[in-house]
Amino acid sequence: MARLGPHSTVKEGLVPRVFPLRLVPEKEVMLYAILNGIEFDAGWCPYYSRAQRNEFRDILNSVEERSPGTKFSIVRFYDGIRDILADAYQAEGLGGHCRVCGSPSSSDVCPVCSFLERVKGSGGVPEQKG
User: Fewer CB within 10 Å of terminal CB in the chain, N or C?
Assistant: First the structure.
């Protein structure tokens, strides 16, 4: 949780995480885009149905339906404790760079290149377990 949300500091070699519309409901963003003729990709990821986050999303949407404002209360609560979490759980130092792509990494090969090596070795996208 300490690493979620917008980043307040920029680390060399990394793109900061920003969420400019995180307090605007998804449906409002989509409606704005439709009404203003803004093109967007409405396609679904082929692995969407396998994501555990769908169950959590359904739970939150159900609670939000019964108690409007719950989602924003959770975000405001998180914003209030984010600095405390960041102090308590310091991020692992990157210290080096990936030997394959050169990106900042805490290991010899970054997770993306490691995944790509596994995919190439197996001849396709690995099956998800669970």
Answer: C
The pLDDT tens digits of the residues spanning 2-34 come to 777 777 777 777 778 788 888 898 889 999 999
pTM here is 0.62
Residue type, position 15, single letter: V
Alpha carbon 69 to its chain centroid, in Å, reads 22
- The continuous run of DSSP H or E covering 96 comes out as strand 96-97
Tokens of residue 41, six digits: 């990709």
**Residues contacting residue 105 through CB under 8 Å, at least 6 positions apart:** 94, 96, 97, 98, 111
Q: Distance between CA 94 and CA 100 in Å, rounded?
A: 15
CA distance 123 to 98: 23
Between CA 118 and CA 124 the distance in angstroms is 9
Task: Check if the beta carbon of residue 6 is closer than 8 Å to that of residue 18.
Answer: yes
Beta strand 104-105 with 96-97 is antiparallel
